[in-house]
Design a protein that fits this description.
With 148 residues, the chain is α+β, with helices and mostly antiparallel strands. It has 5 helices and 4 strands; from the N terminus they run H-H-E-H-E-E-H-H-E. The chain has 2 domains: 30 residues; 102 residues, Alpha-Beta Plaits (2-Layer Sandwich), CATH 3.30.70.100. Helices cover 48% and strands 22% of the residues. A hairpin with a 4-residue loop joins strand 2 and strand 3.
Length: 148
């Protein structure tokens, strides 16, 4: 009889502990536990977003220069996944979306190297149009994070 009473008491204790654990666990906001700060997204895919003024009459020159200058250079960069070029006829504005494997790889490219490629791009455009200044003015630059 005493053994049966001990077993019953132990089972009651076990159930009480189990209920306490369930209540305790349910108090945690699990989504907050999974949330990461932006610095922790260094390993996540990121999209570089660029907007340029591209007048309709010189759109073909812009596309050619993008293909001749930026495309080969970007293709040789570690972490480059591809890019998309869009053009808004009404605004006469280009949208360039460059996909990078991670922000860390993208930002590890020296700005001096980017500036050299940009200068080649501008020289190409100026020569093609026989003008003194690059007509493609940067309107916006930023980044987009993929949402889950």
């Amino acid at each position: 009889m005493k053994l049966n009473l001990n077993l019953k008491k132990n089972f009651q204790r076990f159930c009480l502990v189990l209920i306490c654990l369930v209540v305790l666990i349910s108090q945690f906001d699990v989504s907050n536990l999974k949330a990461l700060t932006m610095e922790n997204f260094q390993g996540e895919m990121v999209i570089e977003e660029l907007r340029l003024k591209v007048p309709a009459d010189v759109k073909a020159v812009w596309l050619d220069a993008e293909k001749e200058i930026w495309e080969p250079w970007l293709s040789s960069q570690d972490g480059f996944l591809g890019r998309q070029l869009f053009w808004d006829k009404e605004k006469e504005e280009a949208l360039i979306l460059v996909n990078w494997k991670s922000k860390k790889l993208w930002k590890s490219i020296p700005m001096s190297e980017v500036n050299i490629v940009q200068q080649k791009f501008e020289d190409n455009v100026k020569a093609a149009l026989n003008v003194g200044e690059n007509p493609f003015i940067l309107v916006y630059e930023g980044e987009l994070d993929k949402q889950r």
